[in-house]
């Protein structure tokens, strides 16, 4: 039997953003940190601001962000990224400054820094990855761990009577007068990924226009520490995380609402 030759022209439909470095990832299979990186890099390229960008890396799985972005980056102590970003932005007000932080970093040891940066209305943008655990250090309970969720430090599930309730960081920060734009999105399916990219674009546009503090929280999966496959993790995020961490815009100042994407 003769197989007919197919005359198929290969057409590139996507290419790596210039703002991303050309290197292999160290993240675990299924981790959505890589999706978040791609979205941020695409927005940077589309806005043409790569040469003006300065990122501040935190401590946690997000610590190696400077390996993946082809922009200037500095490293902060654990939880102190908003404080360092404040200093960078005040010294170099023409630069676009972002922090890239996980929930263990931002919502625990760094809670004071993020709260006061938002209260002061610092013109910086914070990208907050929420995967409900301390990913880098072994999957311990974080401030965002859900009630009843099992972690390496809560093997019987989070007991709210002894460990308290999870912190809804976006809702908390949105109450501060200095916050201009606060949104929560998710990285679990194409529709929500597109919405996450739009939120990142609005947050960075707000900073470019000098409209104050912005934060985008991204619900993310952690298959390794959750003890699930990537597919199971996505389903768990959709069924368990989103009902507790409602998606949406929690603060949009009128001047930011006028931004058209």
Textual characterization of the structure:
This protein is globular. With 261 residues, it is α/β, with parallel strands linked by helices. The protein has a 7-stranded mixed β-sheet, sandwiched between helices. Strands 5-6 form a two-stranded antiparallel sheet. It has a single domain (33-257), classed as Thiamin diphosphate (ThDP)-binding fold, Pyr/PP domains (Rossmann fold, 3-Layer(aba) Sandwich). The protein has helices spanning 33-47, 65-68, 81-91, 103-109, 111-120, 160-163, 169-174, 190-208, 223-226, 230-244, 254-257; strands at 53-57, 72-75, 96-102, 125-130, 133-134, 140-141, 179-186, 213-219, 248-252. α1 (33-47) packs across α8 and α4 packs across α5. The longest helix is centred in the last third of the chain and has 19 residues, at 190-208.
CATH topology: Rossmann fold
Largest sheet: 7 strands, mixed
Spans of 5+ residues with little confidence (pLDDT < 50)? none
What is the CATH architecture assignment?
A: 3-Layer(aba) Sandwich
As a percent range, the share of strand residues is 15-25%
Strand order of the largest sheet: 2-1-3-4-8-7-9
Oligomeric assembly: single chain
Roughly how much helix do the residues carry, as a percent range?
25-40%
Strand tally is 9
What is the number of helical segments per DSSP (H or I, 4+ residues)?
A: 11
Based on helices, strands and strand pairing, what is the structural class?
Answer: alpha/beta
Q: How many discrete structural domains?
A: 1
- Mean pLDDT level: 94
The topology string of helices and strands comes to HEHEHEHHEEEHHEHEHHEH
